[in-house]
Design brief:
Strand content: 25-35%
Number of helices: 8
Largest sheet: 7 strands, mixed
Distance between the termini: 36 Å
Mean pLDDT: 86
Helix content: 25-40%
Structural class: alpha+beta
Shape: globular
């Protein structure tokens, strides 16, 4: 099944800026997240008993855009960070044997995109598929048809809000594990956000060079919905406890209205 992470629309930026007291902020243990990030990168460099298939991935993008063209939707653009997130999850599912959007530890698509697509601000979603043919190799058409014929997966293929995608395809003999990592790319950082930071000032500096400009942001526990304000332009940043956090940039959607998007995960302290 697909998983689309919902964006939150806030009509009261002052309430958002008030945030949660720093002492009550809920951070995630850095060691747990560092271990997962290292596991994902290990899978990218040495996938379990298989190889990533560049041509298969490129064909999935072509097929997806053909499906989107029929109702007049704009094509999806390929994204390197999303491709890394998709490949890493394909390799991780092969290693663990758990075929799901969430790992046994509870890491979700937002975690993978936040860890590996480090210049991206948006709302992520994911499709997954695994196929083993009785005879012959698995083809891109077969994977895309599985998704197209499933209402939930098809919703991701045709989501009007998504602008970018990365496909990860791991071939293990006659078995294929495929992942599509989708996102609405609402903003881009000038360069990838640092994974490890000494203070929230480093994150504010990274976001200040985003396009479009991001002047304020909150953070949450990675994948969480509870927000803690750390920076509003023109005010000193609040003290943020050490831990693993996910950037939640505020994107203007009208006068006194903001979308709270998803950004990179970072480790503080």
């Amino acid at each position: 099944m697909p998983q689309i992470l919902r964006r939150t629309l806030l009509a009261a930026p002052l309430a958002l800026a008030a945030g949660m007291p720093a002492g009550g902020a809920w951070s995630a243990p850095v060691d747990r997240w560092r271990t997962y990030e290292q596991r994902l990168r290990a899978g990218l460099s040495d996938p379990a008993e298989g190889d990533f298939d560049d041509d298969f991935e490129a064909t999935l993008l072509e097929l997806n855009n053909l499906i989107r063209a029929r109702p007049g939707l704009p094509p999806l653009a390929g994204d390197r960070g999303l491709t890394l997130a998709a490949r890493a999850h394909a390799a991780d599912m092969a290693r663990t044997g758990l075929f799901d959007h969430a790992t046994a530890e509870g890491f979700t698509p937002a975690a993978r995109v936040g860890l590996l697509a480090r210049d991206l601000v948006g709302a992520p979603g994911e499709n997954i598929a695994m196929r083993l043919n009785a005879a012959g190799a698995v083809s891109p058409d077969q994977i895309m048809n599985q998704w197209r014929d499933s209402p939930g997966h098809r919703a991701n293929l045709l989501a009007s809000g998504f602008t970018h995608v990365g496909y990860g395809v791991l071939r293990q003999g006659r078995r294929v594990i495929a992942v599509g990592a989708y996102s609405e790319v609402a903003a881009r950082l000038e360069r990838p956000a640092p994974l490890r930071v000494a203070s929230a000032d480093e994150i504010a500096a990274s976001l200040s060079r985003a396009s479009p400009t991001i002047r304020q942001f909150s953070v949450s526990e990675p994948g969480g919905e509870v927000l803690t304000t750390t920076y509003v332009e023109g005010r000193p940043p609040s003290v943020l406890p050490a831990g693993a956090w996910q950037l939640r940039p505020h994107l203007s959607s009208g006068e006194h209205r903001y979308q709270v998007a998803w950004g990179p995960v970072f480790f503080l302290g």
